[in-house]
Amino acid sequence: MAVQDRRIALSNIGVAYIAFIIGTFCGLLQVFIRNDALELPTWLDYYQILTAHGVLLALIYTTFFIFAFLISGMSKTLGSFGPKVRTFLWLGFIVTALGTTLATAMIVSGEASVLYTFYAPLKGSGWFYVGLALVIIGTWLSSFGLIGHYIAWRKKNKGKLSPLFAFMTISTLILWLIACLGVVAAVVFQYIPWAFGWVDTINVELSRSLFWFFGHPLVYFWLLPAYIAWYVVVPKLVGTKVFSDSLARFSFILFILFSIPVGFHHQLTEPGIPGFWKFLQVVLTFMVIIPSLMTAFSMFATFEISGRKKGGRGLFGWFTKLPWKDIRFTSIFIAMAFFIPGGAGGIINASFQLNELVHNTLWVVGHFHITVGAPVAMTFMGVTYWLIPHLTGRVFSKAMKKLAFVQTISWAVGMILMSTAQHVLGLLGAPRRTAYTGYNDHPSALEWFDGFFSNHVTMAVGGIILFLSAMLLVYIVMNLLFFAPKAKLENEFEEFPIAESDDSRTPKFLENWWIWIGITIALIVMAYAIPISDLIQHAPPGSRGYITW
Ligand code: HAS
């Protein structure tokens, strides 16, 4: 990889980890506030911290890290970028960073306590939405840069399938660009005019529907780069090839098709959307589970093939032959293990009737901590351990590897404690997004907190362990970025692990993007055209539309 490309990737990683530090600190404050153990100064409130925690970790850490990973992988697999692509990537980075700074300043100053989902009827300063718009524009510029690089590669390699990493990157970016259309429409045509006072009202239900048009595929924008590491990096770490090139590519295509027309599964309890459209989108949600099941199948097959090749016998003997002492593998394996209950929880959420039980409770908070907070975040951590030394040319020393193990295990323990407490409390009825102090007026609600997992101490212990683990990660990141000695010997250089993938039998039409974009648009029109046009036509004139909660 050219030095100039490394610099772009490292700058993205730098901002990702600045957001990570502030975001995790807000998370620590969060558990104390919920436990009534911390009284905030008058200029700071629970919702300010909750918004900063969600925006900085779920939206900003992920986005910058994802681009760092995709930029590195594209430069690695398709060759170094040309000057035009680099200009796009730098511009994208700068605009996203400017947007992040503006949006964070608004949150910290108390002008945008609208939570990371930021939809109406909550209202923030207009500048907060301008900041978000800049974040999206910045990611588009970076996406165009990477897509341009890919197009140039395909022109030079006519008739060839692109390397798996590049194929998966382009799928992720297509998904992202289409998904953003919903939130861009809401921010530009609804939130900004409303927040700056140019119009008096907003159609609340329309704005929420446009948000979730974006909000659900957003979670796959986080997940797919983690899946890239699972499909492309993990087989190399366990000493084998990609299990099936066509399965891997097809699973990513299914994500493009089915991750967008499903946003109503976040709005099942809301009025204004007829049951038929909700039901249709629930069915499509069950379709988007399939590529994850294919991924689970492919991962188990990869592990078994590798373990048996190394002499593992019997039904489960191969399991013991996996490279458990390699932190690059172990961290990602634990991440995968979290996705088994995480995915099962998602299926519960998506089931129309069961959603009634869990919606707007702490269960949902538990769900996203064991999806984005563990499978995705722990994969990014596992990637961090080798990606930074690969980019800086520094040594990932034995001492740091040991610390990385402590970091990984402690993150997993903290996440198990905290998310189990959140799931249990949610089932008992504890609402999400509610400062704990409110419970004092409802003595019967206090009984929720008497359980083994569902007590204050478990949640706080989980939260504290997570924070300590996060600080350990920051220490390792700083070491790998600035302080570790430069690698000199051949075996000290950290590799970018990319497994071989046999595409000789992969059908070429899988890489004909126009087919998949066409079907995606058809599915979106089928799932959204009528309910959205109804929402536009039937919003009571001059009112705020449908008030929901
Ligand atoms: Fe979700 C709410 C449905 C996946 C994130 N989700 C959320 C929210 C977030 C989020 C952030 O239908 C909250 C939004 C808010 O603030 O309001 N979710 C699903 C479904 C899936 C799903 C069906 N979610 C995710 C992923 C996320 C994420 C991934 C982040 C990255 N979710 C919902 C619904 C709601 C929701 C409703 C709304 C709830 C409400 O009412 O508000 C599926 O994609 C899940 C499919 C996954 C699987 C698992 C496959 C397992 C694998 C691991 C294999 C393991 C191996 C290791 C190989 C079927 C691939 C072996 C290890 C051993 C130990 C043996």
Give a description of the structure.
The chain is mainly alpha-helical. It is built from 16 helices and no strands. It has helices at 3-34, 46-78, 83-108, 126-156, 164-195, 204-237, 245-258, 275-309, 327-350, 352-358, 362-369, 372-392, 398-428, 443-446, 456-483, 513-538. Helix 2 (46-78) packs parallel to helix 4 and helix 12 (372-392) packs antiparallel against helix 13 (398-428). The radius of gyration is 23 Å and the shape is globular. The chain starts with a helix and ends in an 11-residue tail after the last helix. The model is unreliable at 542-549 (pLDDT under 50).
Secondary structure: elements and pairs:
Blueprint: H1 3-34, H2 46-78, H3 83-108, H4 126-156, H5 164-195, H6 204-237, H7 245-258, H8 275-309, H9 327-350, H10 352-358, H11 362-369, H12 372-392, H13 398-428, H14 443-446, H15 456-483, H16 513-538
Helix pairs in contact: 1-2, 1-3, 1-15, 2-3, 2-4, 2-12, 3-4, 4-5, 5-6, 5-7, 6-8, 6-12, 7-8, 7-16, 8-9, 9-11, 9-12, 9-13, 11-13, 12-13, 12-15, 13-15
Bound molecules: heme-as.
Subcellular location: Membrane
Keywords: Electron transport, Heme, Iron, Membrane, Metal-binding, Respiratory chain, Transmembrane, Transmembrane helix, Transport
Organism: Lederbergia graminis
